[in-house]
Amino acid sequence: MCGIVGYIGFQNATPILVDGLKSLEYRGYDSSGVAVLNQNTIQVVRSEGKIIHLEDKLQKSVIEGCIGIGHTRWATHGKPVEKNAHPHIAHNTVLVHNGIIENYEELREQLRSEGVQFSSDTDTEVIPWLIDKYLEKEGDIEKALYKAISQLKGAFALALFSKSDPSTIYVAKNASPLIIGVGQNETFLSSDIPALLNHTKEVVILDDGQVAKLRADQIVITDFQQHVLDVTPRTITWSKEAAQKGGYDHFMLKEIHEQPSSIADCLRGRINDIAAEVDLSELSDPAFFDGVDTISILACGSSYHAALVGQYWLEKFVHIPVSVEIASEYRYRNPYMYPNTLSIAITQSGETADTLAAFSLAKSKGAKTLSICNVVDSSIARMGDEVLYTHAGPEIGVASTKAFTTQLVLLALVTLHMAKKNKTMAQEDIKKLTHDLLELPRTIEETLHMNEDIENICKQFTKARDFLYLGRGASYPIALEGALKLKEISYIHAEGYMGGELKHGPLALIDDEMPILALSQRGVLNEKMKSNVEEVNARGGQMITLSEEGDDTYAKISDVEIKIPHVHELILPIIQTIPLQLFSYYIAKRKGCDVDQPRNLAKSVTVE
Asked: Is 300 a catalytic residue?
């Protein structure tokens, strides 16, 4: 969640570092800083708060040099104040760090007993002092780095330079992302791709247990045992414009409106239009799903809600038992693994710490493993036996939108693929659904036409203090997701409930100031939801219903009706997501909230 940038070359590093930090603001942060080497002097400028405060300081303190590192911090150890901001400096070494050093207290006491005086409350500050300790003994910064990282326990992505070697940046990675950008006689560094796109599209994505020595014209990568590795750069296809707002007020709104194209990209090449069937030939093993008896899906946050929808689909259409696990809890249990279990990990970034740990646990217990993620060559993608990419493109807003719907699309494709293999759906039904999936981008485009209507509806709910979202069947996870979006970006307390659970407690909350948003379903579930809506009406709640065109079930019992296109029941949850995203966005915007960077949250949760 913290951000790292670095530069070594022939240009002044400071503006490049600041530009890179700005492109990582979406990750969430509470302080920032840069360090530049100038004629054997390490200059450090740090500031709490937004990057604009750092820029103000830099205008008053001219720091120039052709080698530098920068950081945006999201507090874990120590308050979000300037003394705890990165970079951290020892006598000869300056360093930035993402992750958590689990044994920092032990190292801190050891170094303190040797005379080190710490100036921060962070776990990070032990690292430059530890490196300096070994530098004094070894006389070589590279050897000192290897010795230091052998002492570290936990997750870390490190970038550092030293007065002892003024032409090199050193980096090391263990369980936190780190990416090298390859330029012409200059080298860039970042914890995420958007910070590199203004300068290069040629990148090297480091694996865990790797160290890189970066010079302007040379990159040398080794493992932690100092064996030199042969690594080939890859080309990133994202454009610079893809990481910009494109005329929208916020990244979130842009990404909501990008969903037709992102879903089209997700579907591309995965449906054989002639045979009217799903084509997952990108999997290296054509028989990957054969023999699977049970499925366990691991995820956090919005990805967890996507997993719950997938559970409903897979059980209904493939006739296979599915469990959905919150990764942060799963990893601390001793879960029983049935034979022939497929474990699916879902994460946008591919770097979510809890999901990585849970996935590793499932794999160690013998599960077959499939990764669903957005970021190519991310840690989760490399961990799985197979990987399916959502191809949503860069998602900058903290609140997930297009990443969530493309996860649903991939789960729908997996469902249809397995249903055909297991012969649990009629071929005509599969044919109809594959056609409907191909039409999905157009259907979402049509749904997005309600943008202005939703904005107007939001005017009467901006002052709400609490919200209930009700759903049944596969729409229940969408109720959870809608509530999560509202509380994430508008700071309104919102909860998602199964409609049938309303009378088991939440009904006590309802009065004439409580808005309730109910999602329609099909058949008997729609009749049950109608009963829930009538229960709310009887107690004076403000009723908003989201139903399909042609469904008049709620016409006389709703204060506000939102209509969406009529689609197949499998696709319905995807379509229901769109107006709920818009609803959350416009309430947050009217409240004046920081939509793209909500307080206390980060885009990629790469620590526990």
From this structure: no
